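This follows on from our talk about sequence and fold. I would like you to pick a protein and set down its sequence and fold. Go ahead and set the record down below:
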Amino acid sequence: MLSETQTQKDLHQILSQYCTPSDALVEDFKKSARLINVKKGEAVVRQGEICNVFVLNRKGLFRVSHINGDTEDTLLFGTSGDVFTSLHSYYAGEPAVFTLSAIEDSEAWLISYDDMRRMLEEHLSLMKWMNSLMVEQIYGFEKRYLFFTNKSVEDRFLNFMSIHSESLRRTPVKYISRIVPLKYIAQYLKITQSTLSRVRRRLITRESR
């Protein structure tokens, strides 16, 4: 289970992913951030509501989803160290178009938009962090589009296993549902759950040889 092996990252590690943070910036983040426990299934950001925080994943597994009528789509998964916010809300004050919810019991820091904007004025290195974060979000959505181009369902599933958390890469295919429910993986891969089950059975047979 991921909850037994999951990693956790502190604020310095998360900031260091995109910049070289000063001690003053790290301390400001620590004073401004609020650590919360997020229960399995609980949403931190909700589609249709205005978001006012950045969510920094300390520990656990989240998913980004969107509902259109009766159809739910899983777009992204977030592991320790990942950062999320609604660009619609941050940039234009509009309601979020995605929901961010926990797949398992998790922990996250919340930093308000007001604190983030203040720190951006006071710490030059944070601007580099913010720019890199935004570019990564755009890159992630473009990569997801390419993810489905000229790839078989099996290749998509194996790629999903390889590009996400270390726990997924270490997990045998037959145990993957202990970490991520198959319905969410099927949504992400844009296939039916029955198709995913057939591919999974084929890979399990191959692993056991």
User: Anything to note?
Assistant: The radius of gyration is 18 Å. The longest strand covers residues 71-78.
